[in-house]
Design brief:
The complex is a heterodimer of chains A (264) and B (335). Chain A is of the alpha/beta class. Chain A has helices spanning 46-53, 76-82, 98-103, 118-130, 146-159, 176-191, 203-209, 227-230, 233-240, 258-261, and strands at 4-13, 23-31, 35-39, 61-66, 69-70, 83-86, 164-168, 195-200, 212-217, 220-226, 244-249, 252-257. Chain A is globular, with a radius of gyration of 19 Å. Chain B is built from 14 helices and two strands. Chain B has a two-stranded antiparallel sheet. The chains are: A alpha/beta (264), B mainly alpha (335). At the A-B interface, helix 2, strand 6 and helix 4 of A face helix 9 and helix 10 of B.
Chain lengths: 264, 335
């Protein structure tokens, strides 16, 4: 069993509606059991990258291998059992109870006309309890706060029992308390053997959990490697096009923007 | 508080609904104006040949048709609302209803008087409406898939509606216009066993597929990439279930004419009782919808000496319920 769970080689992608490539000759290895944070300015191609990894977008050049096999050789259901996505947010129109919503995560394990059974309910409930919402399982999802909803999306992904968890800016709607809760939960999952890939706009979030870092700009990998090698002022400044400073406060990394600190 | 993991409570309510529907159906079979308002007795049924004819060859097929009609429209309404993640959608979207109306008017004026031709023309144009909406949506280069489909559906419906207007203008006011008007008002007074048989297979098959896929429908309300991440093929599965819903609707509408509001209102009532999970909302919609059209059709043929068109009653009662539900915050969704 190789250490690399997911290998992208020279992957390119262009959206129908756009002239330029969203990703250009993108190469990346994601190591089993790692937490890979993808950082980069808006429109750098972070979400596109997640969508390519989960198989939703088809790469137009290069190759993507999952667990040693081309991504395209997996069935949708097999992919759904391997990879779960926690979207940045989700517009929920109907008043599902949390339990009903999290049960949807069992879909990859069910045939098209099957109904979830007792075992599925047990797994869904365990997932809800893991994110700390077990006691609210009968509540309507529409009545939850933004932070709680994010946790429900997380629980649905956990109900998929994935090997790889993809999170698209998971902390963007969370307050400090919930941010901490989510990061602790991710740490637990990593200990259970889940590989985590997340995009974020908050360098501190990456700093608090990532083992590996990918800095992306204009659809290209700018810097990639183990967290300590990549999380430097020089490389972050180059990626964001803004001078930044990296400080350590009580062992935690903090990123400062020079511009803000200067009087206008 | 009942545990959500238990499926016993909603299934019990579904069984109660089923028994209520069956009971109402048996009761209404014997109710009518023969010669004045009242029930046909079993004795009468045994001795009176005319009463036998009336009950078995007029009322029974009509009653079954009203049940199938309610089931088809409500199931289709549920399916459309889920697939478009929009609680204010019904089969009237995507050009299905307007397509059927145009097809019927077109058939009445240009093709023939035969009911078969009118039916086929209505069903054909209803389906064409769906296809046109679908392919137009695929060509649109902005917005999400749902927005594109809904916009395309509105455009195609508007085209058809103007077509119906032109056809009404062209129609012979003494014969054809009347026929078109009756068709647009909707009703089941002309149902026969033969007509019912001609559509029953398609309708029952489509409803069966929708029923079996009832839990899956939950997943199709999610965004494309989320649905994909859960191992399903959102585009293909949505297209399949939409086709089934449209088939059932087009087939029933081809014999009943335009019957509005059922597909919009019934799923809301079902969600009020069962929550959002389509595992229960879909069958509940079918049963409640069947009950609704059964009651409306029975009222239509018994309240007055003459017939009240079904479409008028469903719109009147449906709109009244809708207003009440809005005032009572019964619309349980965030559009």
């Amino acid at each position: 069993m190789s250490d690399v769970l997911l290998a992208l080689r020279d992957v390119s992608y262009r959206y129908d509606t756009q002239e330029s490539l969203a990703l250009k000759a993108f190469s990346l290895d994601i190591v089993r059991g790692s937490v890979t944070a993808i950082l980069g300015p808006n429109g750098a191609g972070k979400t596109t990258l997640l969508h390519l990894i989960m198989g939703w977008l088809r790469r137009q050049g290069g190759s993507i291998d999952l667990d040693g096999r081309p991504l395209g050789s997996y069935t949708r259901r097999a992919l759904g059992q391997m990879i779960a996505l926690v979207p940045q947010s989700e517009h929920v129109v109907f008043e599902y109870s949390l339990m009903e919503y999290v049960l949807l995560g069992r879909a990859p394990y069910l045939k098209p006309l099957d109904m979830p059974g007792e075992e599925d309910c047990r797994i869904a409930l365990a997932a809800l309890e893991q994110v700390g919402l077990g006691n609210l399982r009968m509540r309507a999802i529409t009545s939850l706060s933004g932070g709680e909803r994010q946790m429900v999306l997380m629980a649905r992904a956990l109900a998929q029992q994935p090997k790889i968890l993809l999170l698209d800016e998971p902390t963007s709607h969370l307050d400090l308390g919930n941010k901490g809760r989510l990061l602790r939960l991710l740490e637990q999952l990593v200990q259970q053997g889940v590989t985590v890939v997340l995009t974020t706009h908050e360098p501190e979030v990456a700093a608090s959990i990532a083992t590996h870092l990918v800095l992306v700009r204009d659809g290209q990998v700018k810097h990639v490697g183990r967290f300590d090698e990549v999380f430097t002022a020089e490389q972050l400044s180059e990626t964001y096009g803004v001078p930044v400073k990296v400080c350590a406060v009580d062992g935690q990394h903090v990123v400062l923007w020079h511009d803000i600190r200067q009087p206008a | 508080m009942p545990d959500q993991t238990s499926t016993a409570a909603p299934e019990r309510i579904l069984r109660v609904l089923f028994v209520l529907l069956a009971g109402a159906a048996v009761l209404f079979l014997f109710l009518g104006r023969y010669p004045s308002l009242g029930f046909v007795s079993l004795e009468q049924l045994e001795q009176d040949k005319l009463a036998q004819q009336l009950v078995l060859n007029l009322r029974l097929p009509r009653l079954l048709a009203s049940i199938l009609l309610g089931m088809a429209l409500s199931a289709a309404g549920s399916v459309f609302q889920m697939i478009f993640s929009n609680p204010l959608v019904e089969p009237g979207f995507l050009g299905v209803s307007q397509g059927a109306a145009f097809g019927a008017a077109f058939g009445i004026i240009f093709l023939s008087n035969s009911v078969w031709v009118v039916q086929a023309s209505a069903a054909g144009f209803a389906f064409l409406g769906l296809l046109l909406s679908y392919f137009l949506a695929r060509r649109v280069r902005f917005g999400g898939w749902t927005l594109r489909l809904v916009l395309s559906g509105i455009a195609i419906s508007a085209l058809y509606a103007s077509g119906v207007g032109i056809l009404k203008y062209l129609a012979d006011p003494l014969s054809q216009l009347q026929e078109i008007t009756f068709w647009l008002l909707g009703g089941l007074y002309a149902i026969t066993w033969a007509k019912l048989r001609s559509v029953a297979v398609v309708v029952l098959l489509s409803l069966y597929v929708l029923y079996r896929a009832r839990w899956r429908l939950n997943l199709l309300a999610l965004s494309d990439e989320t649905a994909f991440s859960l191992g399903i093929a959102p585009g293909r599965e949505r297209a399949l279930l939409l086709t089934m819903a449209t088939l059932a609707t087009a087939a029933m509408v081809s014999v009943s004419g335009m019957v509005g509001w059922v597909g919009l209102i019934i799923p809301h009532i079902a969600r009020r009782i069962f929550g959002a999970d389509t595992r229960y909302v879909l069958p509940a919609s079918m049963l409640i919808g069947a009950m609704f059209t059964l009651i409306c059709d029975t009222m239509g043929r018994t309240l007055l000496n003459g017939e009240i068109p079904l479409g008028i009653l469903t719109s009147l009662i449906g709109a009244a319920i809708f207003i009440l539900m809005m005032l009572m915050r019964g619309i349980r969704a965030q559009a």
